[in-house]
């Protein structure tokens, strides 16, 4: 049987090479991603910043093997991605919890599907429930939780599958400003406790500067084209009012003015 992952030279955790995506046919073709090269290092926190409709989610779906690129390839650990797999944990903007399952039931779903024994999967689920700060809420149902708490469950659920890579697609877009800041702080705390390669999509410049080791911006005018790359050399925890933080935020704002 053909392997879902084909061996490629190993350099980066994730490598997107010559990636492009168009939908539709010749009469009605929509170019969503222009030819793109993007490489992500192991344990890096990469932020992809771009306006609505710039192809961010499409890029993520291709990285996760949920969508086939029109041209180019994605490799993980040097192996070509040809379909979805356990290497990747996904957290979406919309809450995707099972409403009929408790917090514990949602988080232990992945380990259960992987065939872990009951006591083992309980242990794994409890570890991540504790990590995201939901100790005591194990038996609550999604409708009993706030938006921020639901996204914590989504993050715990993704981590419980032990993926090497976490893709977070505007996970805090639906939260109020204060909860969002709290969740950004939590995201960094969790990432520092359990290092993973993280790719995080947002349209919020402040959020990008707070979170990223590196920020790549997508051009809003040309479909899905990488515009700028910023190495964020600010110590953590970052301070939204720090002068260097504000300078970088302004620089990205200025350079994105034409495209955001
Ligand atoms: N399956 C599809 N068929 C046709 N067009 C699609 C499909 N998926 C996405 N698109 C189009 O691709 C473009 C980019 O969508 P995408 O969701 O990737 O952008 P985005 O940057 O994540 O947007 P947002 O921030 O608004 O979620 C949109 O114009 C969208 O309509």
Bound ligands: adenosine-5'-triphosphate
Tally of separate helices: 8
Strand fraction equals: 25-35%
**Helical proportion, percent range:** 25-40%
Strand order of the largest sheet: 7-8-9-4-10-11
Give the uncertain stretches in residue-range form: none
Q: Tell me the series of helices and strands, N- to C-terminal.
A: EEEEHEEEHHHHEHEHEEH
Note the main sheet. 6 strands, mixed
Helices and strands: which structural class? Answer: alpha/beta
Principal-axis shape equals: globular
Radius of gyration: 19 Å
Distance between the termini: 45 Å
Total beta-strand segments: 11
Task: Explain what you see.
Residues 14-245 form the ABC transporter domain. With 260 residues, this protein is of the alpha/beta class. It has eight helices and eleven strands. The chain has helices at 56-63, 103-107, 109-113, 118-131, 147-160, 177-193, 205-211, 243-256, and strands at 5-7, 14-23, 30-40, 45-49, 71-76, 79-81, 88-91, 165-169, 197-202, 214-219, 225-231. The strands form two sheets. It has a six-stranded mixed beta sheet with strand order 7-8-9-4-10-11, with helices on both faces. A hairpin with a 5-residue loop joins strand 10 (214-219) and strand 11. The protein starts with a strand and ends with a helix. The model has no long low-confidence stretch (mean pLDDT 89). The structure holds adenosine-5'-triphosphate. Adenosine-5'-triphosphate is lined by residues 23, 30, 32, 50, 52-58, 203.
């Amino acid at each position: 049987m053909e392997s879902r992952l084909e061996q490629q030279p190993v350099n980066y955790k994730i490598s997107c090479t010559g990636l492009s995506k168009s939908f539709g046919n010749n009469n009605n073709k929509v170019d969503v991603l222009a030819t793109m090269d993007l490489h992500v290092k192991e344990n890096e926190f990469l932020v992809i910043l771009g306006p609505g409709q710039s192809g961010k989610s499409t890029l993520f779906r291709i990285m996760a093997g949920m969508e086939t690129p029109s041209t180019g390839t994605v490799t993980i650990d040097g192996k070509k991605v040809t379909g979805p797999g356990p290497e990747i944990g996904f957290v979406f903007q919309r809450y995707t919890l099972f409403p009929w399952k408790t917090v514990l039931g949602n988080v232990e779903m992945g380990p259960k599907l992987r065939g872990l024994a009951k006591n083992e999967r309980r242990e794994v689920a409890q570890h991540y429930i504790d990590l995201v700060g939901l100790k005591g809420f194990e038996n609550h149902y999604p409708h009993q939780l706030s938006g921020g708490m639901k996204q914590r469950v989504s993050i715990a659920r993704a981590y419980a599958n032990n993926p090497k890579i976490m893709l977070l697609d505007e996970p805090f877009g639906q939260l109020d400003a204060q909860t969002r800041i709290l969740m950004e702080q939590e995201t960094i705390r969790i990432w520092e406790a359990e290092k993973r390669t993280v790719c995080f999509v947002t349209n919020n410049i402040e959020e990008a500067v707070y979170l990223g080791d590196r920020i790549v911006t997508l051009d809003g005018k040309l479909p899905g084209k990488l515009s700028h790359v910023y190495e964020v050399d600010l110590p953590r925890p970052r301070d939204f009012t720090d002068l260097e933080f504000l300078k970088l935020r302004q620089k990205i704002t200025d350079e994105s003015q034409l495209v955001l």
